[in-house]
Amino acid sequence: MSKVQCVRGTYDSYGAAKRKMKKVVAEASTVVEKYGFEEIETPIFEFTEVFARNLGDTSDIVTKEMYCFNDKGGESLTLRPEGTAGVVRAFVSNGMQQNLPVKLYYAGPMFRYERPQKGRQRQFTQFGVELLGVETPQADIEVIAMAYEFLEKLGLNGQVTVEINSLGDAESREAYRTKLVSYLKEHYDELSEDSKDRLERNPLRVLDSKEECDKTVVENAPLYADSLNQASKEFFAKVLRGLDLLGIKYRINNRLVRGLDYYSHTVFELTTDKLGAQGTVLAGGRYNGLVAQMGGGEVAGIGWACGVERLAMLLDEDIELPRPVAVIPLGDDAEDKALEIAAMLRRAGLRVEQAYSGNMKKRMAKACKANARKAVIIGSEELANAEAAVKDLDSGEQKNVKFNRLIEELTA
Ligand code: ATP
Ligand code: MG
Fold it and tell me: Are residues 129 and 230 in contact, defined by beta-carbon separation less than 8 angstroms?
């Protein structure tokens, strides 16, 4: 109880790492706002059934990873493991169907009880988008383009691959499932225990397995593409054509299925080989049945979510903050003036450090430590002349500047 440390799989975010995460979220927001997406913030916990029913009760998240608890009123609640179910719940609760399409984005913490390792925490941050009410492939193209543009803005486009697949409509999914089950039954003895279980409950998940023995079996499994009906094939072809038109390179990955039940048609992942086993940085797909499943009527949906920590880890360069100006009073008389000058400079938009106490030498050392670019020194002589000595801390050059010309001098 008295341990002064955070819970396994959680971490404190600050300094350089936090600056990178902020940049990831800021770049993402800027890009998606250009496409007309607006931010939504939903609660961090929901009724357990919002996730249990909608993510599929055989998914890894629901069977193993959820933080569920009973609150003092006896209600079963769950810390959100992902964003889509909550956003769609909000869409239905607030009757947003009245004004389609709806374009929403979110950013915030998600919670999954899994084995912590590099790029995998129990509390982590996702940024995600949801586009509701568009059935045509234009939506698929647009959200993928948006993801691509965002990673381009982060300077990561050369490091990630767009992998894409189509699960087709319900009819195609059913046809594939039948073929897959009969194939997997022929190889039953070669499967892992988990996959034997999946075969009964949700055979598509076997394709997702990370176990070596399953991977070997999956290599020769029937291909999804061979089970798509004409309409699903045409839909997928249009999506790919749009990506070609926009110059977005992709790789069709026939084995790509997503871990949750609600996907249909287009599914995609942006992956990198730089993060070891945790190579997926962004993932998404179409979820046409989800709104109806929550009682909101037939409304098509598509979206993606990215792991903010994983993306932040890919940013090599430190993010520099603008260098501050340090205001340094010499002697008690100058203290009040220094306070006023600091306030004035901040109002003008500058970052200002006050070296709070100590003699001139100590305060200059503090200014340098704060990486200040200039020191504004106010002594009794300067005070009498209504001016300050402005010292360039890189070159050492110093000159006197009237108080009323300081802003001009320091913003030049
Ligand atoms: P994985 O196969 O790595 O477990 P996932 O399919 O469970 O990923 P999604 O539910 O699609 O992941 O979440 C979207 C993104 O969120 C992932 O691509 C990843 O970047 C990030 N993410 C998922 N789980 C974690 C976690 N535990 N810690 C950090 N980031 C995560
Ligand atoms: Mg996972």
Answer: no
User: Which residue of 13, 280, 302, 310 sits with most ligand 1 atoms within 8 Å of its CB, as the best mutation to test the pocket?
Assistant: 280
pLDDT at 185: 94
**Lookup: tokens for 119:** 């790029």
Query: Rounded to whole angstroms, how far apart are CA atoms 60 and 188?
Result: 21
* Mean pLDDT rounded to a whole number for the chain: 92
Rg (Cα) of the chain, in Å, rounded?
A: 28
- What gap in Å lies between CA 151 and CA 148, rounded to an integer? 5
* Distance, CA of 48 to CA of 77 (rounded, Å): 5
Q: Is residue 141 helix, strand or coil? A: helix
pLDDT single digits (tens) 108-146? 999 999 999 999 999 999 999 999 999 999 999 999 999
Q: Give the type of residue at 401.
A: V
* Residues paired with residue 161 on neighbouring β-strands, in sequence order: 271
- Ligand 1 atom closest to the Cα of residue 259 is 6
The span from the CA of 277 to the CA of 192, in Å, is 19
- Give the separation between CA 158 and CA 282, rounded to whole angstroms: 15
Query: If 0-12 CB within 10 Å is exposed, 13-18 middle and 19+ buried, where does residue 257 land?
Result: buried
Backbone angles phi, psi at 143, to 5 degrees: -70, -30
The pLDDT assigned to 357 comes to 81
Q: What is the mean pLDDT of residues 44-73?
A: 89
Tally of residues, the chain: 412
On whether the pTM is more than 0.85, the answer is yes
Q: Is the CB of 80 under 6 A from ligand 1?
A: no
112 lines ligand 1 (CB under 6 A): yes
